[in-house]
Amino acid sequence: MSFWEYLGNRHQQLLTDAYQHASAVFQCMVVATLLGVLIGVATYRSDLAGNLATISTSTILTIPSLAMIGLLIPIVGLGVAPTVIALTLYGLLPIVRNAIVGLRGVDPSLVDAARGIGMSRPAQLLRVELPLAWPPILTGIRVSTQMLMGIAAIAAYASGPGLGNVIFRGLASLGSANALNQVLAGTLGIIVLALLFDAAYVLLGRLTIPRGIRA
Amino acid sequence: MPETSGAGTTGATAGAGTGATTGATIELENLSKRYPGNPNPAVDNVNMEIKAGETVIFVGPSGCGKSTTLKMINRLIEPTGGRIRINGEDVTDIDPVKLRRKVGYAIQSAGLFPHMTVAQNIALVPRMIGWSKARIASRVEELLDLVGLDPGEFHGRYPRQLSGGQQQRVGVARALAADPPVLLMDEPFGAVDPITRDHLQDELIRLQHELHKTIVFVTHDFDEAIKLGDRIAVLRERSHIAQFDTPEAILTNPADDFVSGFVGAGAALKRLNLTRVRDVEVTDYPTVTVDDPLQEIFNRLRSSGTNEILLLDKRGRPYKWLRRGDLMRARGSLARAGTLVHDTVTRDATLRDALEAVLIDNAGRVAVTGRRGEYTGVVDMETLMNSVHELLEADRLEALEAQHELEGARADRTHAEQEGNGGEAKA
Ligand SMILES: Nc1ncnc2c1ncn2[C@@H]1O[C@H](COP(=O)(O)OP(=O)(O)OP(=O)(O)O)[C@@H](O)[C@H]1O
Ligand SMILES: [Mg+2]
Hints:
By secondary structure, chain A is mainly alpha-helical. Helices cover 82% and strands 0% of the residues of chain A. Chain A is elongated and about 70 Å long. Chain B has a six-stranded mixed sheet, with helices on both faces. Chain B is globular. Chain A binds chain B through residues 109-110, 112-120, 123, 127-128, 131-132, 210-213, and chain B through 71, 74, 76, 97-101, 104-105, 107-109, 111-117, 124-125, 128, 158-160, 174-175, 184. Bound molecules: adenosine-5'-triphosphate and magnesium ion (MG). Magnesium ion (MG) binds at residues 66-67 of chain B.
């Protein structure tokens, strides 16, 4: 069976896998973004806390994803849970780091001005600091998403959802008729998804970065 | 120029029923700031009373604590000792956010938020204190107008689309937005070129003339201080007040070497900036107008004690200087006779401007004009010299008197202390 015939026959299954893949990555990204920005906001003002947050998240990143998922299985079982936890943890690092860098990079005289005209602390954060730190945070989100696309494929090892299943099935039956097609379809699918997400982020940037600070 | 007459004084600018709050008094009492980890206080026991509607300038060398003192007034920096009272109300312990909404704040390079438009920047404080949308919109227009920016053109621009001077104007507009009685300015014009700075200073003077806010303004440019201040506080290290007085008094009678060092060379020349042409004697000069018959012009020339008369145009504005013989040489044609008047000064010009004009004129005099450019008199070198001598002499006498009074008071106090119980002699 040629690759195109394979796609024609299996497109239903492939689309479902792709959808689940995208959906898992998207949902984990939402959680990772919220958590990451919160951690950033909570730690950027203190040298110690900020460095601690960056170091601990980058330590997580050095754990091989297969090992991480393997370690999670005995704790949370198979399926969606280890996938979501692993993806969220991996997604945190670029977001936390960029949130801290972005928030620390806001011109101190602007914070002084915000305070000086009578903004409360939450207003300073929401109206001045976070909007100004948003471009680097968004970059962090893009990097995270790209990374999670690949890591999500490993989730199939723990019976998680997504295109990883197709790839693993192919790898398990190497030498059989469709093995190569499966691996190829899964990999290409992930690349296409990654490109689509990236395009969406460009659009999101256009919509959410105020014109006054757009490069 | 204390101005306490409440609402209505600035009705002309009060388009939205705002812009009518005049200044408040500010009292600093034993105000101190000790930064953690530094044994010496950055600001040590400052006592100062600022009148309502007054512009007070803090000048002093870098690091002497000007900004720290200023920022304690709106508690951007929390004092470690002392009290702050605004209009008699002790604000040392009230909610700082509330305090700051009543105190305008403008800083160097404007501090505009780059992600907000000009209008959004200005609208921030009115929004925070809950004004209606309509009221905010009209206030923004009014303020842009007030600081000399066309509302239609600048309303929707982002800060990066403005020049430094324009940004600074918006910064001042934002500080004035909710019509606070007090305006704090920390080297607001420090980052713009000298010509723009000069314009902005003139604008601030004009604004203050309309608004009568209490302004506390930090600079390390003494000339800026002289130009803007009703009173100047010359500060030395730890914000100790070396002298707190009118620009005139500081120029003519610096309290000590530190202050004279700060005043710098040319105090007498700087003094000229503080006096206007209308304050000196403007002499009358023989004049004729272009409509007068030639014969009469001849007669005036011959009969006048000076060997020169001033020819005015149809609207009474200085036109030409005519000397004896000029008309003869031009064969009786007024159009060709005499030398054109190049430079005039208004009655509002400073003596320095007048001196400049007199020095450039080869006959050593300049015509003074009124509001519509009409002739009102002439100032010459002699008048200027005499006036300046009188001014300096008067300043000196006044300063001496003040010093005597001070010494007298001091002597009385020591006397009283010595007579009182000896146990508190060290107090
Ligand atoms: N946050 C801080 N922590 C510790 N010391 C500080 C802090 N801010 C200012 N200082 C010190 O306090 C002193 C006064 O500083 P301040 O900023 O008030 O000076 P300034 O008169 O405004 O100087 P400049 O003209 O340079 O702006 C300086 O010696 C400075 O080093
Ligand atoms: Mg300063």
